[in-house]
């Protein structure tokens, strides 16, 4: 894998040779108190099965069902600002888009997706670690469920998302449509203008409707339950290696019930663009 301080090859050259997005290699996990990390780990797993719960209901669950004597202000900060979560039902949350950013219509309703590179989806998720946390962005092809590109970072910003998309386009060509949520990273001028400059149609989930992006939400459940919860990463490089291993398995070996138990890479490879 990539080695820093290699006598002949820089990290940039190694990354290009391996088709690896290098941004995640420079990041260290962010830190919080032991209790906050424990709370976020609990909320992360609970949210995967109860995405309709906002910070208020998450706080009630943590106090009454899990026994944590913590304030609602603490949970709201972790839920909204650190983890970047929002309930699927419309309501108050701080991870919503900037009001000055334009929102694009949701284009996938009643759309038949029957070929690769017709529709891609991109999203960000919080990743709990042994000490700290990071974020994962990934792009999937909705027809084949093939993971086209991914990257890890200790912050959620528009440039990071744009770079991940640029890399996916360089490797696989461009889609007709890319679907996102209304997070500020995707509604930003930097990201949206890049998408439109590539003559790609930009689709955005309805406000408070995480189910509009259900395909990639299912990917988050898979990668966390099948890999990361079982093997909590120690640091950024460990996280990178675990994700590289899992996404290779997910793309090239894991059979998907929704695909009639076929393998994403095989469907993506055999479909005409």
Q: Could you characterize what this model shows?
A:
- The protein has 273 residues and is α/β, with parallel strands linked by helices.
- It folds into two domains: 34-82; 119-270, Nucleotidyltransferase, domain 5 (2-Layer Sandwich).
- It is built from ten helices and five strands, in the order ααααβββαβααβααα.
- It has helices at 11-18, 34-49, 55-64, 72-82, 158-172, 184-187, 189-197, 214-228, 236-252, 264-270; strands at residues 119-128, 133-141, 147-153, 177-180, 201-204.
- It has a five-stranded mixed β-sheet with strand order 3-2-1-4-5, with helices on both faces.
Supply the key terms.
single chain; 273 residues; alpha/beta; Nucleotidyltransferase, domain 5; 2 domains; 5-stranded mixed sheet; 10 helices; 5 strands; 12% strand
């Amino acid at each position: 894998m990539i080695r820093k301080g290699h006598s002949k090859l820089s990290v940039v050259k190694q990354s290009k040779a391996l088709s690896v997005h290098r941004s995640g290699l420079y990041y260290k996990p962010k830190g919080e108190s032991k209790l906050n990390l424990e709370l976020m780990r609990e909320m992360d797993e609970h949210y995967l099965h109860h995405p309709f719960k906002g910070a208020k209901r998450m706080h009630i669950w943590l106090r009454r069902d899990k026994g944590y004597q913590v304030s609602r202000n603490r949970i709201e900060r972790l839920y909204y600002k650190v983890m970047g979560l929002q309930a699927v039902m419309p309501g108050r949350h701080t991870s919503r888009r900037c009001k000055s950013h334009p929102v694009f219509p949701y284009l996938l309703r009643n759309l038949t997706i029957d070929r690769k590179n017709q529709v891609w989806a991109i999203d960000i998720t919080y990743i709990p670690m042994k000490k700290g946390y990071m974020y994962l962005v990934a792009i999937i092809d909705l027809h084949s469920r093939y993971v086209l590109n991914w990257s890890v970072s200790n912050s959620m910003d528009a440039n990071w998302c744009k770079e991940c998309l640029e890399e996916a386009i360089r490797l696989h060509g461009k889609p007709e449509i890319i679907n996102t949520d209304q997070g500020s990273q995707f509604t930003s001028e930097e990201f949206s203008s890049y998408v439109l400059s590539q003559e790609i149609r930009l689709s955005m989930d309805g406000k408070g409707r995480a189910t509009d992006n259900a395909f990639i939400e299912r990917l988050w459940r898979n990668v966390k339950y099948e890999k990361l919860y079982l093997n909590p990463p120690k640091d950024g490089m460990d996280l990178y290696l675990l994700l590289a291993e899992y996404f290779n398995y997910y793309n090239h070996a894991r059979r998907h019930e929704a695909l009639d138990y076929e393998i994403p890479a095989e469907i993506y490879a055999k479909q005409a663009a």
